[in-house]
Amino acid sequence: MTGVGQGRRDELAATLARVRSRIAAACAAAGRDPAQVRLLPVTKTFPARDVATLVDLGLLDAAEDRDAEAAAKMAEVAALRRAAEVRWHMVGRVQRNKCPSVARWAAQVQSVDSARLVEALHRAASSAMQAGQRQGALGVLVQASLDGDPARGGCPLPELQALADRVAAASPQLRLEGVMGVVPLGMDPGAAFAQLDVAAQRLRRSHPAAVELSAGMSGDLEQAIEHGSTCVRVGTALLGDRPLISR
Ligand SMILES: *Cc1c(COP(=O)(O)O)cnc(C)c1O
Description:
The protein is of the alpha/beta class. It has helices at 3-30, 48-56, 67-80, 99-105, 115-130, 157-169, 189-206, 221-226, 236-239, and strands at 38-41, 61-64, 87-90, 108-112, 138-145, 155-156, 174-181, 212-214, 231-234.
């Protein structure tokens, strides 16, 4: 590789090293094993060749927040790195009419926040499996809303357990893997992650295999790790600033 490609590779290698050392330092401060915290690159708005470069740097997970962008990018990455088995994650709001597509490309959907969405994903995953378009269960995280504002996505905390029960009942097409959360605008991240941690622990009591807590992004991953995050979703700290478009 030469020219622009090599420059971008060096850039991403450097930002990856910085993010990894932030994770390591946060784990050390919290007395946690860094192997318990997965780095999930959020590649929305960035091109397939960046995902391919991250694959070259050893990252085999990528997250997107829109179905159409994800499906197209996944096909491009598959053409660029034929041997790589990238696991794609959906972290954005899912419209029910997009479920058939999402069930074909996603290994995990982190943003499941309503019973209607569970039903739609269950049907879509069943059809995709029957058609040979997916192997294995669709992983699901239930997304908690910490401010109870339905406009911003997420399930209110008092309803989270019942939603998780519905996902678990949709086995074997869906597999309940844990909880995801985003800090509401204007809320203290420490307080938000503490609430999320309590919700995740409660859920684990009835669903012991649902061990994942997806919490923390570029700006607040340290606080999330302090409060038990097992998956930090990192976009800008890894890939740079996204274009200022409304998403
Ligand atoms: C975009 C996005 C991220 C990444 O945010 P950064 O601040 O760029 O790290 C994480 N989680 C979700 C749900 C997102 O939509």
